[in-house]
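Thanks for the sequence, V.! I ran Peptidase M1 membrane alanine aminopeptidase domain-containing protein right away. Repeating your input here for the record:
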Amino acid sequence: MKLKAALFSFSVFAYTGFTAQNIQNNPGSNHGNRFEQLGTILPTPNIYRTASGAPGQGYWQNKADYDITAYLDEDKRNLKGSETITYYNNSPDDLDYIWLQLDENEQSNVKNAGFAFPSTLPASSNDQQLKATELPEKDNGYGVNLEKVTDASGNPLKYTVNKTMMRIDLPKVLKKGEKLVFKIEWNYNIPNRIKMGGRGGYENFAEDGNDLYTMTQWYPRMCVYSDFHGWQNHQFTGRGEFALVFGNFKVSMNVPADHIVGGTGECKNYEQVLTSDQMSRYRKAESAAEPVEIVTLDEAKKAEKNHSKQRKTWNFEAHDVRDFAWTSSRKFVWDGMRVTIPENNNKVMAMSFYPKESYALYRKYSTKAVAHTIKTYSEFTIPYPYPVAQSVEAANGMEYPMICFNYGRTEKDGTYSEATKNGMLGVVIHEVGHNFFPMIINSDERQWSWMDEGLNTFTEYLTEERWDNKFPSKRGPAWTITDYMKLPKDQLEPIMSNSENIVQFGPNAYSKPATGLNILRETIMGRELFDKAFKTYAKRWAFKHPEPADFFRTMEDASGEDLDWFWRGWFYGTDPVDIAIDKVTIAAPDLNTPPREAKETKYKVDKPLQNSFEDISKIRNREDKNIKFYADQDKDLQDFYYRYDRGQEKVDTEKEYTLKTDAGIPLDAKDKEKFKNLTGYQIDFVNKGGLVMPIILEFTFEDGSKLYDKSSAQIWRQNEQKVSKTYYFDKKIKSIQLDPMRETADIDTSNNVWSSSGTETPVSKFQLFKQKQGEGPVRGGASGKVNPMQAGKKS
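Predicted structure:
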């Protein structure tokens, strides 16, 4: 709500007053440079990435297509795979080697990235924690075992494995526009992800003796080669996630015959792997507006009791995706429904896979949450382009194209708490939302976790709000980040930090960027400008590889807002927001003092104004005969001062000139009645935290009414430590509340309130008079001085 008529907001009054005199009185007031442009902090624009934040005319990215067969050995808990990769070099560079990721080596005690982490002696420990700190006596048996690496004809290729990265040396240079076809055969022992951690592996259900497999980072996959980084071959330590290449996948998974499989993309042989009843239910689900059980709870319970020795092969295809993940278990209940994306009329199969241990929650909510998420994200970013979106209950959260693994177990009797339900919904929305960030808007997670986690968490917050206006979101609202922002500086890093360097990873990569975007949307830019710019970023970089500068530049380019101060403070800095009301000064109008009288000033002119020193440029310009001065050629410019300066005319030094100023116009009785109750309030603010933000005020008056006012963060531009603002009201203020809706992430709200005692006496009076018709208002920065040489001249 904006200020109403009760606030007398004359431009000469409600003004912060930063003239040259103010700057003189505050030497060094701008030493923080919080409003300086990012300039060379951002990479130089080029033909690949423009200054507007859009892909340039020379933008390129490489591509990788995969044809994979996989064999899941449940008895040995081993995965055996064979893949043919077709790699397209669309770069302008010749490549004599390529890099692939072997992420599963992170589970090995001898092949992992070798990143050491400090440890201290705990007060208590369990056997698994003790085992994790044991010095390895031998290979634990995990990690990728490479069997063959050959070209398309079966000839061996030379390769080197460096921990979680693999380099293949090419027999001949891969030139621009060429493609490379090669093959890899491998196997690895599937880890128990519940005990060992990690994103992929199996979970064993001891009560029924079955496993639930989440097959992720399971195949050797291409690293990204880009215009901004070259090869992204940073080691995988388990935290910084993935930088991946878009391509098409054909994947065949051979699994026990009683397993149900879900995966990235569309299954091409449901009729061969499902029973006739299951196939009939799937057809029904394809047009259903409510989730239909394709594999029922009774069927899942029955399958748990008998471990088939037969095998089935499930065939999947996916196009324009950066990765492929899948899940397999005989424990799965499977339901689905059709959801239509309005923006592109895409008819998507929303589906969920879950064991009986989460049936009561997932049957009721999961698939509906999937549908709600892709529809809401489509509204805020780009229309969901894929044919499938799936949620799998696997006791933890992780995302892949068209499929994600989520949390949400009930108690044994099927009951659950509100906290469990909300936690499950939040994780499903978050992980399904990752289809957009980074599965489509494909940022480099290994380097910039915030570009997928932060942007996704922000959009998750918008989606949770659309699910339930009272949803207890933990990340997104400004007030929820303040505990993190209060931490000592040695526990904080800028958002713009590499994933491996962050101490408080969750708040830094998820919460702080999400909160910053929400502050931009609600408080700084406004929803209309923000939403348009955010959609522009998503549209520009869909199916491409954006970097931070591309996001920052697009948000400004598409909105017309200079946000460098915000990126500098919120993303590159660690200062918190703590703006305080330091002092309130009260003044009353003097309605009886006569206004200023008319005034005449006499003065003489002896010579025109000149620079006190003849600089080198003027001297050299006069000596240069090739320079023709415009004033020498234009007769209209050759006035008295021009001729006088060149000795062509003399001045009467005895002649007096007169400078006149008008008298003020006194207030009449009507004016005095109007302004008799007027009170002036000067509010002094102090920036204690360091991070600048808009100043948002709620005024509460003695009659109980309220008014609101907001000044943009630009109010701090000329003094980043202190600023004042003056208001004039025709009724008395009872209290002033700074940031009443807690929308700026202010870490200390105790200094955000001023209350009147009701007995304050105005400390000063201000003269009030009417403005002469035709005169403009006083503007900041004007010195008020008159050039003596111009005085007395007619305009």
